[in-house]
């Protein structure tokens, strides 16, 4: 019984590590372009792109997360956590990787171990 439990815990930890590596690869070519700061206080529908905190409506989370997770091998967990983060923050960063600084809530939500919660 304890062996099965250890195997399950080990599998969950490994999956989490694989997701972290997949969603945050190390690139040595050039730094990512820096986004422009929002020009006004974010509120519902204030940004046509839905990239500022609070600028999306709940029904927009699915399509935004579908695009955000389109390049990962781990679509199911990526979509799960992206939708969870979008529901809380009402924001999904642009692109399929990085750019989290445009949505502080999405960027600052961490796991118990200090890793990123949102893809």
Automatic annotation (TrEMBL):
Record's keyword annotation contains Signal: yes
Gene Ontology biological process terms from the UniProt entry: gibberellic acid mediated signaling pathway
Entry-linked Pfam families: GASA (PF02704)
UniProt keyword annotations, A-Z: Gibberellin signaling pathway, Signal
Statement: the UniProt record of this protein carries the keyword Cell division: no
PANTHER family noted in UniProt: EXTENSIN, PROLINE-RICH PROTEIN, GIBBERELLIN-REGULATED PROTEIN 13
Full protein name: Gibberellin-regulated protein 13 isoform X1
Origin species: Raphanus sativus
């Amino acid at each position: 019984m304890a062996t099965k439990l250890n195997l399950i815990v080990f599998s969950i930890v490994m999956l989490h590590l694989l997701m972290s590596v997949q969603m945050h690869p190390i690139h040595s070519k050039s730094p990512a372009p820096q986004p422009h700061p929002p020009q006004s206080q974010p509120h519902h529908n204030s940004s046509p792109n839905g990239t500022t905190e609070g600028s999306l409506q709940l029904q927009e989370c699915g399509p935004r997360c579908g695009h955000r997770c389109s390049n990962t091998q781990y679509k199911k967990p990526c979509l799960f956590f992206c939708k969870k983060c979008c529901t809380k923050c009402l924001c999904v960063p642009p692109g399929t990787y990085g750019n989290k600084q445009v949505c502080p809530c999405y960027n600052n939500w961490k796991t118990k171990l200090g890793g990123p919660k949102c893809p």
